[in-house]
């Protein structure tokens, strides 16, 4: 699977985990040069507290377009530190 935004492949993996309709990419699959930590955090009742990344490609920024759970709950431990996307990031088979 590939995550693509603004013409760039920002993550790629054959081992994503699909949860609630989202592909979660292993941390090793993201191309870190496109990811900038965000101060945004949200709480999911069963997964825990999510942290976010801004995605920056070719001078454009997509704020809070990626999220992950650095300390996922026990029931969501399989996605701890895995990264998922929204806000216009497309997920394609590749």
Describe this structure in words.
This protein has 94 residues and is an all-beta fold. It has strands at residues 2-5, 8-12, 17-19, 22-24, 35-44, 48-57, 60-68, 83-85, 90-92.
* Succession of helices and strands: EEEEEEEEE
Q: Low-confidence spans: pLDDT under 50, at least 5 residues?
A: none
Q: Please work out how many helical segments DSSP would assign.
A: 0
The helicity comes to under 10%
**Quick check: average pLDDT?**
97
Major sheet summary line: 4 strands, antiparallel
Strand order of the largest sheet: 5-6-7-8
Could you tell me the number of beta strands? 9
Cα separation of the termini: 5 Å
Tell me what portion of residues adopts beta-strand conformation: over 45%
What is the general shape? globular
Radius of gyration from the alpha-carbon trace, in angstroms = 12 Å
Q: What structural class do you assign from the helix and strand content?
A: mainly beta
């Amino acid at each position: 699977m590939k995550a693509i935004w603004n013409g760039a492949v920002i993550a790629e993996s054959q081992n994503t985990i699909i949860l609630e309709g989202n592909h979660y990419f292993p941390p090793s699959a993201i191309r870190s040069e496109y990811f900038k930590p965000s101060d945004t955090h949200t709480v999911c009742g069963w997964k825990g507290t999510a942290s976010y990344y801004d995605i920056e490609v070719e001078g454009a920024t997509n704020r809070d377009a990626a999220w992950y759970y650095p300390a996922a709950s026990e029931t969501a431990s399989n996605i701890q530190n895995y990264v998922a996307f929204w806000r216009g990031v497309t997920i394609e088979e590749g």
